[in-house]
Design a protein that fits this description.
By secondary structure, the protein is an alpha/beta fold. It folds into 2 domains: 59 residues, 2,3-Dihydroxybiphenyl 1,2-Dioxygenase, domain 1 (Roll); 52 residues, 2,3-Dihydroxybiphenyl 1,2-Dioxygenase, domain 1 (Roll). The protein is 23% helix and 30% strand. It has 3 helices and 8 strands. Strands 1-4-3-2 form a 4-stranded mixed sheet. Strands 5-8-7-6 form a 4-stranded mixed sheet, covered by helices on one side. A hairpin with a 5-residue loop joins strand 3 and strand 4. The relative contact order is 0.16.
């Protein structure tokens, strides 16, 4: 086996709400909709949303019933420029993403804004090329 990730699946108890967010807010088109499992048309690593109940059904693993605490996944969406981070973050929040941290220049030099999906998974929109210590590099509140 070549150790290469091909599919990333986000587990949820509310597939319709999560699918609507990734389709309508993030703009990722649905490729296959099987109700409890929905795969998106996405270049690169495939992305899917699947119900925990479906995973229990197909695997028999009761551990899918356990709710996870804290963050277990973060997706990072690259933009073409630091200015696009700001405009995309504004668009995402206006479309229904929960704002977590407004765009700022991170200590590692990327312009990054953090937002959450309906299940509370925190994701980021970012761009390379922002100067460290530049505008917006203030501490988090």
């Amino acid at each position: 086996m070549e150790p290469r990730i091909d599919l990333l699946t986000i587990l949820t108890d509310d597939v319709p709400t999560m699918v609507a967010f990734y389709r309508d807010v993030l703009g990722i088109p649905v490729r296959d909709d099987h109700g409890a499992y929905v795969e998106f048309g996405h270049e690169g690593v495939r992305l899917a949303i699947c119900s925990r109940a479906e995973m229990i059904s197909v695997t028999g693993a009761e551990s899918y019933r356990e709710r996870r605490a804290g963050q277990t996944i973060e997706l990072a969406f690259r933009t073409a420029s630091p200015d696009e981070v700001d405009s995309e973050y504004t668009r995402l929040v206006a479309a229904g993403a929960k704002p977590i941290h407004a765009p700022a220049t991170m200590p590692w030099g990327m312009r990054t804004g953090f937002f959450a999906d309906p299940d509370g998974n925190i994701h980021e929109v970012f761009a390379e090329g922002a100067a460290p210590g530049g505008e917006g590099s203030e501490e988090r509140n």
